[in-house]
Amino acid sequence: MRYSSTFRTVATAIVLACILASALVGLLHEPKHPLLVWIVLVVAATLTSSVLVLKRNPRRDGILFAICAIGSGIHIGASSADFPSSIPNWLWTIGAIGAGTLALVADAETVQSQSGERP
Predict the structure, then answer these.
(1) C-alpha angle with apex 50: 47 to 51, nearest 5 degrees?
(2) What would the pLDDT profile of 31-66 be if each residue is shown by its tens digit?
(3) Which of 79, 84, 87, 103 could join 58 in a cystine, given CB atoms 3.0 to 4.6 angstroms apart?
């Protein structure tokens, strides 16, 4: 499996678009816990953007995407959006978990293919 910069860029753009859509939904619906909703959105956008800015590292990217996906779960719990409006949240969750999983699998395959002494 190849973890390319193109895949990383496309996955990050999709997740960021879903975070932006979640912010727009948050503006239209009054969240249950407004401060928490906006903090989670800012943290998730920052983590996801840092994937694009930093040098490619599948392990780190996978961890950042996983934290972003956990933020989506927190955002769903703290917002008051019902199902049709919560679709960006679900896309955000699926996209971040999928991209993070692929990055971690690519990192594991890289480590497995390296020769050397194993403890």
Answers:
(1) 95
(2) 777 888 788 888 888 888 888 888 888 888 888 888
(3) 103
